[in-house]
Specification:
Blueprint (H helix, E strand, L loop, with lengths): L7 H6 L2 E5 L12 E3 L5 E3 L7 H12 L4 E2 L8 E5 L4
Antiparallel strand pairs: 1-5, 2-3, 2-4
Length: 85
């Protein structure tokens, strides 16, 4: 579970830049990240990416689970808000 730093709309409409997924702890997500199925978000835009959550996402990727939602289909980067936490 992540803390919300801003609304989904503010995060998605704000200025974003890509960050290496593995370096994104402490950033505010600008994208959804989920496993599909079932499609329940692990993180939503506007939420803080915690170290614990990042480890879960990276573990899912290493295990070959269907991590989706990132605009980078290689799963190497995530768009994050330029607003600081």
């Amino acid at each position: 579970r992540s803390d919300t730093a801003m609304t989904i709309a503010d995060a998605m409409d704000g200025t974003m830049h890509p960050v290496k997924l593995e370096d994104s702890a402490g950033c505010i997500s600008g994208e959804f990240v989920y496993i599909y199925p079932p499609g329940i978000p692990l993180i939503a835009p506007g939420e803080c990416i915690t170290e614990q959550l990042l480890e879960v996402i990276l573990d899912y990727i290493r295990k070959g689970l269907p991590v989706q939602g990132l605009s980078d289909q290689t799963l190497e980067t995530i768009l994050v808000s330029e607003q600081a936490i």
